[in-house]
Amino acid sequence: MLDFKDMDWWDFVSKILRPVLKWFDPNEWQVRRLWKRIQAINALEPEVQKWRDEDFPRKTEEFRQQLQAYTAEIRAQYEAKLREYRACKEPEERFRLEEEVAKLDLAVKRREQEFLNSILPLAFAMVREAGRRTVKMRHFDVQLMGGIVLHEGKIAEMKTGEGKTLVATLPVYLNALTGRGVHVVTVNDYLAKRDAEWMGPIYEYLGLTVGYIQHFMETPERKRMYACDVTYVTNSELGFDYLRDNLVYSLDDVVLREMFYAIVDEVDSILIDEARTPHIIGGMVEKPTDIIEKADRIVRQLRRDVDFTVDEKHRTVALTDEGVRRVEQLWGISNLSAPENFAIYHAIMNALKAHHLFKRDVHYVVKDNEVIIVDEFTGRLQWGRRWSDGLHQAVEAKEGIPIKQEMQTIATITLQNFFRMYFKLAGMTGTAKTEEQEFVKIYGMPVIVIPTHKPMIRKDYPDVVYKTQEQKYRGVVREILQLYAIQRPVLVGTRSIEVNELISERLSPHYLQALALCTLVLDRAWTMHHQKQLTREELDQIRQVVNTRLEELEIGRVRQIARSLGLDPDPLHPANLRRFAELIKIPEEHMDKALARLEEALKDGVPHNVLNAKHHEREAQIIAEAGRLGKVTVATNMAGRGVDIILGGKPDPENAPEELCDDPDCDVEFVHNKEYHAVKALGGLHVLGTERHEARRIDNQLRGRSGRQGDPGSSRFYVSLEDELWRLYGDKGLSEHPWLKNWPEEEPIISRVVSKSIEIAQKRVEGHNFEIRRHVLQYDDVLNIQREIVYATRRKILEGVDMRANILDFARKTIENYAEIYLPETLPPDQWDYEGLLNTLNPFLPVGFFFRPEDLRGLPKHEIVERLYNACVNYYEEKEERLGEEWMREWERRVLLWVIDQKWMEQLADMDYLREHIHLRAYAQQDPLVEYRREAYEMFQAMLQRVREETLRWVFYAEPFVEETAATQQVRVHVVSEVSGGDGGDSGGGTATRTRRATKQKPVKTARKVGPNDPCPCGSGKKYKKCCMLKERQ
């Protein structure tokens, strides 16, 4: 009979409704659709298994020929239109043809996708068989399902250990048949090289080429790797290679091919966590650093909440009125807000951020006398990256290390806009479903959850919540001791290096014995209080002493209290040891063996491995051992992604064959060590989280290190109400509730309300961060439109498009533009400023050689424009004839590339300044984003005008010399280099911080009288009073 009294009705109803609700789950519909295609692949497997080795590359070549035939008609149209475009010399007609070429290119790619969809079952069957023959790995049905999802340009969510690396080979092979190149994007260089070498035999067996990118590679080697059918590369190397390609002066230095298809591994980490950080290539700016050092000294004298306030939630600092007066007094200035003191104010604000928002061993580490940023999501060091806008220098001043020169932005792009340039984009990760809304909105990629090959049996225990961080850390160490005593492996995950090292220190004998004694004293005190042998006041006095941070604990007083309670002060006393074992909940069946290991741990400390950004050199070795019996691993988020912890340790058939399991009755499918079975019997790997992360995905990644491929495992998170998550985003009303205030701090809080509030806080942070990313993208989209125009123009020039018509068009537009200013229709001709027109045009067009103001008087406006334009054309043609047409085209190309680079760099600096201050428009009841778009458009038009004028200046006035010798090319480059003030042709190797030295523009002096509101003679497009007038006076 059923016992209805003890039945869990909620669990009972859930079990009944779960199968019914599955039918209404959209993800289940997708899974059922995919199963039908998998059946078609499985049906082809017996036939493909009969093929000989040479049949596979032959079939690949046959696929490629069929693809060419399938797309022949539309491809012929594309190639004909492309030839027409390249032959066209008229700018407007070329623009129209460019749009048609782009449409036909898109049509060719879509036609190719139709063919790939038709051969998908056979292609996947071939890859499966190639994997079985080469790397001894056969794709499971669920892996085939993941491959189909990736081919469709979606995100496949697959649990840890499900073989995502192998899954990628399926769509990579299929799409590489187009010959356009496929990029597999990983999170670090190690994985790029490992995956390329691991999966390489599959591609090579099928007749494809495979390569990988490492940060130290030079341009020729990078170009060769990107030319392969398949390239494994990190997101940062890919982004910087794109930026560098748009800074080179020759097509030979361009390394990337077209952006066709990319599969992003750990897609949530790259496209969400790193989306807020743009890739920036910078150049050194010569500025004195004494202002930064002085700001640091002054900030050290300011008082928090008196002179300045800190908002940790929004990561901002602000000076109070008192603080402003204090800074003015210490610096010796009268008005901090004066325009001439802006640099001082900026340095003070950066110094405040460095001291109060950026923590050592949390946000950065100091290594080899250098400040190195720590990635908050992966826990890895970000070599070569620097905070912008002087913040990195402020941190260097805070740490007292040499201050490096500030960087000026030369090229920049966000990962969001970079990856949206691909024709087709897909991703795979273990945690993406919680962010599906963002993936769909920004990238157009829905998330499909792929079933596991074997059922997931990991136990995820509820959070253990404490009031204080100290008690949380004690709880974590007690659980580590319990697991170590029974020899079960444990992975302890921390958010920062600081906490990582704290937990490591707490596992030393001194702190372990102090913890054991404090635990025993509290246990005895509470027992005596319940037995009415201690009053509440006496209990509280004991608790106050014992609950002090272990680093500040007076151990002598604790021992006195222990004696007064009738307790032996030695935690290693047999009675104490057994009671402590009971308190940390060591199971009775393990008690006898566990007591000896517990005593050993208290005497000598818990042996453990520490994995953080400071010790990353041993990462592979530490992870290989993390699943062994009794292993304790304390790691940051470095162990949260791309890490496969195998129970019993990673098998090593070459160096340790004696450790491999040789039991003939063993039914485990994969190679494993003998220890595997002992660890499995203990419950597998246990994951301990010391703090909830801002995103649930990161917590799930840590949990995912346990329970791989159907193995047992468990996880538990320890949380306190002093953690950053709760302090900044938690329910303040709940924190002040009398019930919670009176709760004993050494006791975990058992309440569904508190646990639910922590989950709500996490969701609140996720929403907050999504809004930040969306906000960043809205602003970056404005800059992205400008970037696409500039880079597309630059690429056309590199490809050798004839720019003669463009140069003459520049001349006509410039003349017409200034004719509108100096010869306005609103004034009669006798009031037109002919002298002003000629003086303004003279710096970039040789009109002064042919006309004087009196030559233009009495002529209609359109005739004046035509005469000036024709004079420029005649001068241009004479110069072209003198230098030779070929050399003139080369000169125009070099000048245009240099001018575009210089003006684009200035535009980036101006846009940075606008972006930083545009929020102030909100005080005038204006939408900052709308105003940003409007002003950005006006600034871009002004930049284009400056590009035209500067180009005309060099094309018409510069006189390059030509030597018909072997050194001709060198001489030409030398001329342009002297003009540009830097080597524009260096494409760099693989460093993330390529630098150029920025030259300071000198003021242009002019003999004629220039009015303050006249256009500046330097050609900047700005008014004279806002440009060179101040510089001349200085």
Structure description:
- The chain has 1034 residues and is an alpha/beta fold.
- The protein has 5 domains: 24-282 and 415-449, 3-Layer(aba) Sandwich (Rossmann fold), CATH 3.40.50.300; 286-358 and 386-405, Alpha-Beta Complex (Pre-protein croslinking domain of SecA); 457-508 and 607-651 and 668-750, 3-Layer(aba) Sandwich (Rossmann fold), CATH 3.40.50; 509-604, no CATH class; 781-957, Orthogonal Bundle (Helical scaffold and wing domains of SecA).
- The chain is 53% helix and 9% strand.
- It is built from 39 helices and 21 strands.
- Helix 9 (219-226) links the parallel strand 3 and strand 4 (230-234).
- Helix 4 crosses helix 5 (91-134) and helix 32 (804-822) crosses helix 37.
- It starts with 8 loop residues before the first helix and ends with a helix.
Q: Compute the number of strand runs.
A: 21
Sheet with most strands: 7 strands, parallel
Average pLDDT value?
82
- CATH topology (level 3) name of the largest domain: Rossmann fold
Q: What spatial form do the alpha-carbon principal axes imply?
A: flat
How far is the first residue's CA from the last residue's CA? 99 Å
If strands are numbered along the chain, what order do they take across the biggest sheet?
3-4-2-5-13-1-14
Helix content: 40-55%
